[in-house]
Design a protein that fits this description.
Elements (H helix, E strand, L loop, with lengths): L4 E4 L2 E3 L2 E3 L4 E2 L3 E2 L4 E3 L2 E4 L3 E4 L7 H12 L6 E3 L5 H4 L2 H7 L4 E4 L1 H11 L5 E3 L5 E3 L4 E6 L9 E5 L4 E3 L22 H15 L3 H11 L6 E3 L10 H12 L4 E8 L5 H15 L5 E5 L5 H10 E11 L2 E2 L1 H13 L5 E8 L5 H12 L2 E2 L4 E4 L4 H21 L1
Length: 398
């Protein structure tokens, strides 16, 4: 029934689209949905690479049956055990009881824990190979990209990297599967958001994986989320390289909380100053309205970060505290940092923002601004000076 997309000769896309889920990992908004990608190689031996979320197992199993056309399934490669990719393993094993499950030692511990599967396992280690006929597969460990058991599979015959979550992105596949078949422009921002939300903390492991894989001739990337990268494979790799080095683009994210608009007026003054001094990429996030997913995306994207908060119960505004915790969890490095705050009778926001910058080891730019009650002319001038200092610093960095 299904007319399946061939990625290469006898390499089929058997993934599915999820247009129902509102929040990825029950946290991150999915305005464009998300795909769960799986791939089937039909050779002398048949090999499935990863499965899909169990919610879509019925469609998934039908696609596999159509591609196999009566043949048995010999191997399942498990590159990543997260449930959105490994959720259908138990049902797949019921459908194909003789399938050998390929993974590493870490994989098998999770396989037992999630699915109580402990038999029919084929363990691979770094650099091991498997010949399945015309296709020659090799396996490379990529721990903490972004789980400890993650590995990738390389098909040296067709120069395909089955990359687990690496190079993935939010967004369903709306008809096309390979990047050259579609307009991919909206995926780039979603890739940055996906990376900052999901992978962000693990920049060093991503760098180690990229260095290891640089020796391979990779012409096609088959990730577990988003398009198959071929025409834009180099761009996808470059984005992950820059993000994992915490290399921000030229621009500033202003992240602020405001209860009655006074702190927001400070943010507006700083933004106006940045623009007047030549900064074109400016994004402003009111943390009471902007989902954390998008705030984190822009913090990862841009080199400059300015955070503002009113004092609340002698602490930071709660939503600012929340986003700072998420930034710290991701260990974001190398940001140019400015900060400002306001209070009515006792100020605490600015000193807490100062302590956060020290903890993150960021370079402080400009003089912090602390405002009592409503914005006056002197404090407006100080906000302008903060924006001016950040603009000048960005120019020097370039």
């Amino acid at each position: 029934m299904y007319k399946l997309k061939e990625i290469a000769d006898k390499v089929y896309y058997v993934g599915v689209n999820d247009r129902q889920k509102a929040l990825f990992e029950n946290m991150w908004p999915l305005p464009y949905g998300v795909s769960y990608n799986s791939y089937l190689i039909v050779d002398e031996k048949t090999v499935l690479v990863d499965t899909v979320d169990v919610c879509y197992s019925d469609i998934f199993l039908k696609k596999i049956a159509d591609a196999l056309d009566g043949r048995s399934l010999d191997y399942l490669i498990v590159n990543h055990m997260e449930p959105d990719h490994a959720g259908s393993i138990r049902l797949l094993r019921q459908q194909y009881p003789d399938v050998q499950i390929i993974g590493n030692k870490q994989t098998f511990g999770m396989l037992a824990g999630y699915h109580n599967i402990t038999t029919g396992l084929y363990e691979v280690k770094e650099g091991d190979t498997l010949s399945i006929g015309r296709h020659q597969l090799s396996f490379y460990m990529a721990p903490m990209v972004h789980w400890p058991e993650v590995m990738v599979t390389y098909d040296s015959t067709d120069k395909i990297l089955f990359s687990a979550d690496a190079f993935g992105t939010y967004g369903t596949l709306d008809g096309g599967v390979i990047d050259s078949e579609m307009n991919v422009e909206h995926y780039w921002e979603e890739m940055i958001r996906y990376y900052s939300n999901i992978v962000g903390k693990y920049g060093n492991p991503v760098q180690r994986a990229l260095q290891k894989l640089s020796a391979l001739d990779i012409q096609t990337i088959c990730s577990t989320h988003g398009p198959v990268w071929r025409e834009y494979a180099a761009k996808a790799i470059d984005i992950y390289d820059r993000m994992s080095r915490y290399e921000g683009e030229d621009g500033v994210a202003i992240v602020y909380g405001s209860m009655y608009g006074n702190t927001e007026q400070m943010a507006e003054a700083i933004a106006a100053s940045l623009a007047a001094n030549g900064v074109k990429n400016i994004v402003m996030h009111n943390v009471s309205k902007s989902p954390a997913s998008y705030v984190l995306k822009d913090i990862f994207k841009y080199k400059g970060l300015i955070i503002g908060s009113p004092t609340y119960s002698n602490r930071l505004f709660p939503e600012i505290e929340s986003i700072l915790d998420k930034i710290e969890t991701r260990e974001v490095k190398n940001r140019l940092y400015g900060y400002f705050g306001s209070f009515t009778w006792a100020g605490a926001a600015v000193k807490n923002l100062a302590a956060f910058g020290e903890k993150m080891k960021w370079e402080v730019v400009g003089v912090p601004v602390e405002q009592k009650q409503a914005l006056n002319a002197d404090k407006y001038a100080e906000c302008w000076a903060l924006g001016e200092a950040m603009a000048e610093k960005l120019k020097k960095e370039n």
